[in-house]
Write a structure and sequence with these properties.
The structure holds two protein chains of two kinds. By secondary structure, chain A is α+β, with helices and mostly antiparallel strands. Chain A is 25% helix and 37% strand. Chain A has a four-stranded antiparallel β-sheet, with no helix packed on it. A three-stranded mixed β-sheet of chain A has the order 2-1-7, covered by helices on one side. Chain B has one domain: Rossmann fold (3-Layer(aba) Sandwich), CATH 3.40.50.300. Chain B is built from nine helices and eight strands. Chain B is globular and about 75 Å long. Classes of the chains: A alpha+beta, B alpha/beta.
Amino acid sequence: MHELTIALNIVDGALEEMQRRGISQASAIHLRLGRLSGVDKDALLFSYGVASEETPLAKSRLIIEDVDVVVLCSACGSERPIESFPILICAECGALAARVVHGEELEITGMEIDG
Amino acid sequence: MSEPRMVEVRRKILKENDLVARRLRDRFHRAGVQVISLVSSPGAGKTTLLERVLTDLGRDHRIAALVGDLATENDAARLARFGAPVKQITTGTVCHLDATMVERAVETWTLEEFDFLFIENVGNLVCPSSFDLGENLRIVLVSTPEGEDKPLKYPTIFNTADAALVTKLDLTDVLGFDLDALIQNIQLVRPGMPVLKVSVRTGQGITEFEQFLLKRRSTLESAPTV
């Protein structure tokens, strides 16, 4: 259970981005979360509520976009989805992955500001 | 009230732990110490392996070890018998080591005095995967009694490791353990990862494993300063 630490880092990161842009309040924070990141979505959503308490993000929502795993296939050389999680083999040709291209993401992609 | 406005941001979340780990890795590199962490389930044989490695590599190299557990100083006491500096990190209820615990534990050591620093993580196949400790090499141990499908059940820990070590190899026949299936499962979740095999009890594979560690150390020495 390390999602609370991560939620605190998301809140800190978002507040810094807001300050840089002169934004005082945001209604939602958008996050991309890869399936290989090792972070549990439900635990993170719960933790965000606690982590944002008594900050300018207290009433904000965390909107999470799941990122599926995409690998670079060692046989066909293309970027492909995998057959079934967590087995890192190319869904097209069944060869082992050379490396992971997507699925490890943990990044803020946007903030919603009330107009 | 008008429609909410969307502001685009691109910010990777660097966990506080990653920042400390980065600082540690830099410090380890400057001190010229090869830092190897061991992760596994409880009982896979991390401490037993370390006893053997401290004895063998300790003849020609200066070694220190950190051992993590929720409670007791048992592991540190076991390893201290081999004469190497050893520190126990007791985490209380925390299920993993983090970079700050490591930083605090090595605070009083002069790292330049060591060739190798081993970090034995808390026995756990889940949480340690998310915490970089600044190590150069992370080895995941899997013992034969645990079964062939551990890598499929706990992919993340295998994904964040640099090498896998199968332990308790002497039990393979007794258990009817399918070693090839385990190796295949490791490759499925972490293609290309080196897999080594040992039995500390019989000594099988120990030389190869220690050669692997020594080779990794020489690679580190020739690496450019970060």
